[in-house]
Amino acid sequence: MTGASNRQIVVAARPDGDARRSDFAFAEQPVPVPGAGEVLTRSLLISIDPYQRSLMGNAASELPPIALGQPMSGPVVAIVEQSRHPDFAVGDHVVAWSGWQQYGLSDGADLRRLDPDAAPLSTALGVLGHTGLTAWLGTTTFMDPRPGGTVVVTAAAGSVGSLAAQLAKRRGHRVVGIAGGADKVRSLTRDLGLDAAVDYKAADFAEQLAHALPDGLDGLLDNVGGAVFEALMPHVNHHAHIAIAGLIAQYGHPGAPPGPNRLPALLRLFLYRFVQIRGFAMPDHVASYPAFLADVAPLVAHGAITYSEEFVDGFDSIPDAFLRLYDRRNPNRGKLIARVG
Ligand SMILES: NC(=O)c1ccc[n+]([C@@H]2O[C@H](COP(=O)([O-])OP(=O)(O)OC[C@H]3O[C@@H](n4cnc5c(N)ncnc54)[C@H](OP(=O)(O)O)[C@@H]3O)[C@@H](O)[C@H]2O)c1
After folding, report:
1. Which residue has the higher pLDDT, 250 or 23?
2. Is 323 found in the same domain as 244?
3. Is residue 137 domain-shared with residue 276, that is, in the same domain?
4. How remote is the CA of residue 200 from the centroid of ligand 1, in Å?
5. Atom 36 (ligand 1) nearest CA
6. Which atom number of ligand 1 is nearest to the Cα of residue 126?
7. Are 50 and 134 within one domain?
8. For position 253, which CATH number holds?
């Protein structure tokens, strides 16, 4: 290991609106040396996630921004290179929270051991990882409407949305997915088996929505916020349950959006339609991983759940891939993962 370097992608500047390539920089540090009780991991697969925009600062977020010059934080699949920790051995595969760098140092608290024979390693960053846990929490805990009700899932072709929509379907709900573009919308009904799908980019989005929701919605798992959420508000039924998992349309825009103030309309929903709205974040619920995996891993193993992954190759490809999460002309198609080792 002596002489080897640890390449990192660091936050170089606070974005003004959407992130740009110049907000990232490459850096090199010596490979860290594990002390007593520590583990050195080498990244194999690096997760690229929408919430990482929030960590860059100047965001509509309450997550504390990463210090300038520090690597982007986030989950990776890694292999243990050196261990001075009793629970981890050299060669173990783990999920670590070491972010956009080639090596990570951990005291073991953030490491989750993986069995590479049980499922493809990449699934630990998607359908069986943090986005899968988010989808499962949303559908089983935070947005569980009346049996047989209509559930809407936004960003339904994404990693969280596609699993949430399928789990809601398995729980007996009528499920309507919202995504951008004809291809993704078609795949929601054809590949995921949803009851209806709506294209938020289409000129007739409002008409499509009204057609897909003749009896309104009883549950909403929202990953988007912004204009898509606003369009759904008139369709919200009495006693509906709304779970807010993400606000990808808003992260880059901390100021008030253009147009009329929707707060009075939102408060009317609370008061007159007795709506329950809950936000949630999966880091608060990591203790639920075993229950989530016990429920969902067998479904994935038996092919009962459809999931998509999009791989980019090489460490240097990460910043451009990240920017595509926010590029409405060339969006990602599935859980975005960089193969780096
Ligand atoms: N609460 C938590 O703990 C937690 C954990 C993980 C993720 N999340 C959140 O969940 C959401 C989805 O994450 P993911 O991992 O599933 O991401 P993903 O698989 O990368 O999907 C994101 C998708 O969002 C859609 N999108 C992007 N900008 C949009 C906009 N302005 N309006 C409407 N749709 C837009 C795009 O799909 P189209 O091509 O259809 O536009 C994009 O492919 C994000 O908001 C993320 O922050 C929350």
Report:
1. 23
2. no
3. yes
4. 13
5. 155
6. 15
7. no
8. 3.40.50.720
Closest to 335 (Cα-Cα) out of 321, 316, 314: 321
Alpha-carbon distances, residue 281 vs 51, 66, 98, 127, 308 (angstroms): 11, 18, 19, 16, 22
Answer yes or no: are the C-beta atoms of 172 and 239 closer than 8 Å: no
| Amino acid in position 208 | Q
Cβ 246 vs Cβ 50: under 8 Å:
yes
- On whether the CB atoms of residues 278 and 87 are closer than 8 A, the answer is no
The residue among 81, 76, 159 whose CA lies nearest residue 114 is 76
Element (H, E) at 18: none
Number of Cβ within 10 Å of residue 194's Cβ equals: 24
Indicate whether residue 325 lines ligand 1 (CB < 6 A). Answer: yes
Query: Would you say residue 293 lies in a domain?
Result: no
pLDDT at 333: 87
CA of 102 to the centre of ligand 1 (A): 25
pTM given for the model: 0.95
Provide the mean pLDDT of the chain.
95
Specify the pLDDT at position 331.
Answer: 86
Number of domains in the chain: 2
The per-residue pLDDT for range 186-215, each reduced to its tens digit, is: 999 999 999 999 999 999 999 999 999 999
Closest ligand 1 atom, residue 162 Cα: 16
Which CATH number does the domain housing residue 109 bear? 3.90.180.10
281 lines ligand 1 (CB under 6 A): yes
Residue 177 Cα to ligand 1 middle (Å): 13
User: Would you say residue 23 lies in a domain?
Assistant: yes
